[in-house]
Design goal:
The chain is of the alpha/beta class. The strands form nine sheets. A four-stranded antiparallel beta sheet has the order 6-5-14-16. The radius of gyration is 28 Å and the shape is globular. The relative contact order is 0.14.
């Protein structure tokens, strides 16, 4: 018998036993097992991702739960996989193309997608390999990817079904827009950052009373050419008798715009008067709808001002145009004051540039099963841990808004809609969308494709991952369902995730499960999971969220090399109170290694 080393050498031991467990099929879930099932589906990391401390915590907790279920004799299955991460992956590949001084348009859609697939096959599995190093006991033979053919069919099946039920429609509405990526973004893809700028006090002269002015404050003077009204609160005594009058727009093409009354105006902010630019602000757009105001869009999709901004600003980049607009207003006497102003600005997560509120044609989803989704949590069919997050979840469902499900990307699930050639899409009505002679919606496409043009947009990444608990188990293909064990493993048992995606993922999965799984059966048979365990956020010693940009996050692989996977996992769990944010302490990771070493010595003493 070989001698056991005096001290624990985790690298050799962990590598040996992990390989042994894989060879023995110790992590495999048996779809035909008669024992009580215990199922976890991994929150799919982005295919562009690498292991972070957040992944370490989340996956360690999942591993604890699944290993305990095995020890209890349950039919345990932990399903792994990755998300195609539409904008993140396309950004990575386009960045590589820029090094060659090319863009995706130099290749065309099909060739560009080939390059994305090449990248995915070469580098898209890195994080799964890193999870193996962490010791994750997933059933790796079940690994899923949201762009796999069977999964893609599930995504498109859902789109077609919801469209036919009237839940999906096409509309021109305000979205978060990235001028660099040239696509709509979800709120989750917008990062709020503190920014220093200027607040400009601008005066508008009344047409019927020369020399009389209304003043407004704005951070965006470059959008003044898009102003179509000035709004005041209907009960503001300062503007009694002003409503219905007109003022001259002080910048851009000459125009007389009305003063209107709207209760959305904050009387306490600035002068109590608000310039209304419906094409460039969500609140302004809503006010414009109520008052049937025109929409003047002065920005191109790339953030450059167009001809509607007037000859002095047209062709200028938005921030250069802001500076120039202030100069023009000052020269004309319309700029009353300019003062320093600090506020929070939304940045595109991937391109790291300020977003634009933009009015664009998009595909929208009216959420299904909202009331049932409330009942699922309120009545205890799904339990949140900690329970306090159920109030946040229910509040969001009470105030739910339609979901923008389209993205102006090439990488992703292309929307299965075809338009008859020659149609003006800008003029299509809701009735036109339901006319099969004009718009074709199906999985297979039209029988005469030469007469049709497919929609360019792809679906939001979340519009695929909301099907994760059942599409990964073969739905909607009956043969695949039987093979993968959907009837046995669904509903899954526990979801481990972060509270920051309650709305983007957790709530949507609940609604999808209720809509598509086992129609007519009781709610407890249709929900996607029975428990949701919310982890905390790992922060540094100063309380800052760990990030690459701050340089305050250790590399988990370095910690594994230094302390071993078990040392890292034991240490991170020991400082992770349920649902609370965590202050990272490396000495606790060292304690985890020391505990493993004690167990080793105890075992050595009894051999």
């Amino acid at each position: 018998m070989s001698e056991i080393t005096k001290s624990y050498e985790p690298r050799d031991v962990e590598k040996k036993w992990y390989a042994s467990w894989l060879a023995a099929g110790a992590f495999a879930g048996n779809a035909h097992d008669n024992r009580d099932p215990y199922t976890i589906v991994i929150p799919p990391p982005n295919v562009t991702g690498v292991l972070t401390m957040g992944h370490v915590l989340n996956n360690t907790l999942q591993d604890v739960l699944i290993r305990r279920a095995r020890l209890e004799g349950r039919s345990a299955m932990w399903l792994p996989g990755t998300d195609h991460a539409g904008i993140a992956t396309q950004t990575v590949v386009e960045r590589e193309l820029r090094k060659q001084k090319k863009t995706r348009h130099d290749f065309g859609r099909e060739r560009f997608l080939e390059k994305v697939w090449e990248w995915r096959h070469e580098k898209g599995g890195i994080i799964l390999e890193q999870l193996r190093r962490l010791g994750a006991s997933c059933d790796w033979d079940r690994t899923q990817f949201t762009m796999d053919p069977h999964y893609s069919r599930a995504v498109l099946t859902v789109f077609v079904d919801l469209f036919r039920k009237g839940h999906i429609y096409r509309g021109k509405r305000m979205v978060n827009w990235c001028p660099v990526s040239q696509t709509a973004l979800s709120d989750e893809e917008v990062i709020m950052k503190p920014a220093s700028g200027s607040l400009y006090r601008v005066r508008y002269e009344r047409v019927d009373a020369p020399g009389t002015f209304v003043e407004v404050k704005t951070t965006r003077p470059e959008t003044i050419p898009g102003d179509v009204a000035i709004a005041v609160h209907p009960e503001d005594p300062r503007y009694a008798g002003w409503v219905g009058r007109k003022v001259r727009r002080p910048l851009g093409p000459a125009a007389e715009i009305p003063i209107i009354a709207d209760a959305a105006v904050d009387r306490e902010f600035g002068t109590g008067a608000l310039k209304i630019t419906p094409a460039h602000d969500k609140t302004d757009f809503e006010i414009g709808l109520r008052h049937r105001l025109p929409v003047v869009d002065v920005l191109q999709s790339n953030g450059v001002l167009n001809e509607l901004a007037g000859p002095e600003l047209a062709g200028m980049e938005r921030f250069a145009a802001r500076k120039r607009a202030a100069e023009l207003l000052k020269a004309s006497g319309a700029l009353v004051a300019e003062e320093n102003h600090a506020n929070n600005v939304g940045f595109s997560e991937r391109a790291d540039v300020p977003i634009e509120p933009r009015l664009t044609w998009q595909w929208w989803l009216r959420y299904p099963r909202v009331e049932e989704a409330k009942a699922a949590v309120r009545d205890g069919h799904i339990r949140f841990h900690p329970e306090r997050w159920s109030k946040v979840y229910l509040h969001w469902l009470e105030n739910i808004q339609d979901w923008c499900i389209s993205r102006q990307l090439w990488w992703g699930h292309r929307i299965p809609v075809w338009y008859r050639k020659g149609l003006d899409r800008e003029k299509l009505t809701e009735q036109d969308l339901r006319d099969p002679a004009k718009v074709h919606v199906s999985l297979e496409g039209p029988a005469d494709p030469e007469n049709w043009v497919q929609e360019d947009d792809v679906l939001d990444t979340w519009a695929s991952s909301w099907l994760w608990p059942f599409a990964t188990l073969g739905w909607p293909d009956r043969e695949a369902q039987a093979k993968l064990g959907l009837d046995h493993f669904y509903p899954t048992t526990t979801l481990v995730t972060g509270p920051d995606i309650i709305f983007f993922w957790v709530a949507r999965m609940i609604m999808a499960g209720l809509e598509f799984m086992r129609p007519g059966e009781p709610i407890e048979r249709r929900i996607p999971f029975r428990h949701v365990y919310f982890t905390g956020i790992i922060r540094d010693a100063q309380g800052r969220k760990m990030s690459k940009s701050l340089g305050n996050s250790p590399d988990p692989l370095d910690l594994i090399d230094k302390y071993g996977a078990d040392g890292l996992r034991l240490g991170i769990v020991s400082i992770a109170p349920q649902g609370q944010d965590i202050r990272f302490q490396e000495d606790r990771i060292e304690s985890g290694k020391n505990f493993c070493n004690k167990l080793w010595k105890i075992g050595r003493a009894h051999v």
